[in-house]
């Protein structure tokens, strides 16, 4: 069994089996495979309940007792995914890694994802053991085989990682941190082209502790996380490798939690990835992976495996997982600490928000007004010209074009556009032509008019806008509809939901920083409400979530975790329901990471059968000059595909062209 570092707590899910007898286990396995068929239950029960060290003793006893190779017999008796899993468990860890890499580079094509996962995540000691095991098992040099099967900067970084020479000193030089930040900045953002060698040298050799400080300082210095620079400067497998290295530097368990989630989400299961991770991490950090998985994806690793696999294969994976953390949103204590740390990162991060639409250089409202008039004059309409002009001007510039159009032609540009274009394209273009506050006011009006109410639209807008934006919306609503927004909300909603929306619509959220003593009081206030007292709970949450500043709320949520071992979002989902629950969850998610909140909304608007064009349009219009670039980054980080690709696969025609222009590029 892998030994934890001195003083460190063992975090694997598989332990040495008490009262272990290798001869008895060898006899039981022989009996399970003797005769016609095999007792798969007995096989999985023994092998998944023993540590790797104990399995090696069983192999030796089996050979001594029967003169046969246990792994060869298991391969003969078992098949498919179950066989791959059990045989993987029987190999020493370094030999298991060696087999995975040999398979990844054998035959036609290369499994780059496997190479990246193993070489980006292993320690120096594990890397040295891997190289030796590969030499012993295949009588070949691993470095030579990797060089023969890969190329370019991807190859160079793999070779650097393969040396297993990453610095391990915990003493960090502040001067060297600053120098590395400057070198990375100059090698990427400040350079025409990219100096890949600097990225390889620094990310491939510096200690984890040093690099974590480099990443923190890089964010402070440049206003963007190192991952954003890597995506902007590097490409292909090299980019994927460097991102994996960064993730493992930040948190190896979080990297594997993400890999496991992606292996099981959507249609089909990436079984090779699932098996490789469950085998390789079962005696290292499976408990940490479980905790992060539960925190990040709001479901347990156990439940996802249970729903995504079957038969003895499923039973074996669940044994390796070691337990189910899905207790109605409750964390076991270590997971609460993980959640606390995630809020801490959210609280300290100061990421610059960036839109994708910026003021056009050499802007000429006369020329634009004339070009738009020409595009709509006569038979037919030149949609390409309309899209090109309107999606590449800032909102302030569009207002100048509207005024110039009226001055030149005595016509209302909005009316002309309405008569010339239609459908989804018309909603998008006309939305872009409106001042932001008037656009939001119109979306709120539409959400409340006619039969039924679009509560999701009300929540999305009111839960995410700043005080200044809310006040501007109030003025626009009064001006356009001769009625106050509060009166409209009062007449169209009811109960606690109405109270929440009206509170948000006042635009009176505090704007200061955090107050630790007050945060503890606030956390205690919502933690003390008896379960089942729904009305009191909703009132207490409303008075805090709708009025406190974002920095203060982040601290409240951290203190809540410390007091209760619950994440506030899980508590809301457990104790509340309907629109009240959805509104509070939206506020919490917006406080934690507003671009990620919108990325999730965009993803849901395009997944499955049919597209929610209204939500898609509303977000693309309203965030294009605020944080759409940040939303793009969160989208690709979470869903493993770019927003550009999602839009391209889900829309068509001129609507597609306009959306892609707003999107601003392919990540």
Please describe what this structure looks like:
With 667 residues, this protein is an all-alpha fold. It has seven domains: 22-72, Annexin V, domain 1 (Orthogonal Bundle), CATH 1.10.220; 166-250, Annexin V, domain 1 (Orthogonal Bundle), CATH 1.10.220.10; 253-348, Annexin V, domain 1; 365-433, Annexin V, domain 1 (Orthogonal Bundle); 436-506, Annexin (Annexin V, domain 1, Orthogonal Bundle), CATH 1.10.220; 516-592, Orthogonal Bundle (Annexin V, domain 1); 594-663, Orthogonal Bundle (Annexin V, domain 1). It is 71% helix and 0% strand. The protein has helices at residues 22-33, 40-47, 52-66, 70-77, 80-90, 93-105, 112-121, 124-138, 142-149, 152-162, 174-187, 196-205, 208-222, 226-233, 236-264, 271-281, 286-297, 301-308, 311-321, 333-348, 365-376, 383-391, 395-409, 413-420, 423-433, 436-448, 455-462, 467-481, 485-492, 495-505, 516-527, 534-545, 550-564, 568-575, 578-606, 613-623, 628-639, 643-650, 653-663. The longest helix has 29 residues, at 236-264. It is globular and about 100 Å long. The relative contact order is 0.06.
